[in-house]
Amino acid sequence: MDDPGRAAGGAMGEYAYQSSGGERPVMDVLKDIFGNVEEMVRSELRLARAEIREETKKAARSGALLAAGGVVGIIGAIFLLASVAQLLSLVMPDWASTLIIGFTLAIVAAILISKGRAGLRVPAPDRAFENMKENVEWMKNQTKS
Questions:
Q1: What Rg, from alpha-carbon coordinates, does the chain have?
Q2: Of all helices (H) and strands (E), which one includes residue 116?
Q3: Any idea what the Cα angle at residue 75 is, between residues 69 and 78, rounded to 5°?
Q4: How far is Cα 53 from Cα 10, in angstroms, rounded to an integer?
Q5: Cβ of 11: how many Cβ atoms within 10 Å?
Q6: Is 125 exposed, middle or buried (0-12, 13-18, 19+ CB in 10 A)?
Q7: What is the pLDDT of residues 61-82, one digit of tens each?
Q8: What is the largest CA-CA distance in the chain?
Q9: What confidence category does residue 142 fall into, taking pLDDT thresholds of 50, 70 and 90?
Q10: What is the C-alpha to C-alpha distance for residues 145 and 142, in angstroms, rounded to an integer?
Q11: What is the pLDDT of residues 20-54, one digit of tens each?
Q12: Helices H, strands E: what count in the chain?
């Protein structure tokens, strides 16, 4: 066991350690190809999981902004309805003053919510998809030769 590659338990396949320079049996070649494909698929799945985790964290931050915008909108609505409605009721009917306040608060809340929603998107493991395409091309090339 002097060979560091064999000692490390790498996934190179037994063909890397064959001493004969002759032709290899087709079954051994297919076994190595399928072993490599299996390892590539596992690697791509690990990459996809990591990408989804990363995108989920971004979505959570955007969700927090969305929630904060909703809370601020509600608190602002309460205070503005109370104070500005009293002020406007001095120069116009009560229903008109509360209607103006309601529209103003709705616009502010819509702006905050739209900013929070802008950061939300469905996570997609883009790098993993690209690597899978490359792996399919590699497998096609391996079976042609």
A1: 31
A2: helix 94-118
A3: 140
A4: 27
A5: 13
A6: buried
A7: 888 899 999 899 888 778 877 8
A8: 101
A9: confident
A10: 6
A11: 556 888 888 888 888 888 888 888 888 888 888 88
A12: 4, 0
CA distance 136 to 33: 12
Residue for token digits 């955007």?
A: 62
Domain ranges of the chain: 24-140
- Looking at residue 29, its amino acid is V
Torsion of CA 67, 68, 74, 77, to 10 degrees: -140
Please provide residue 84's backbone torsions phi and psi, each rounded to the nearest 5 degrees: -75, -35
pTM, to two decimals: 0.38
In this prediction, residues 9-13 reach a mean pLDDT of: 50
**Comparison of pLDDT for 123 and 19, the residue scoring more:** 123
Q: Is 142 strand, coil or helix?
A: helix
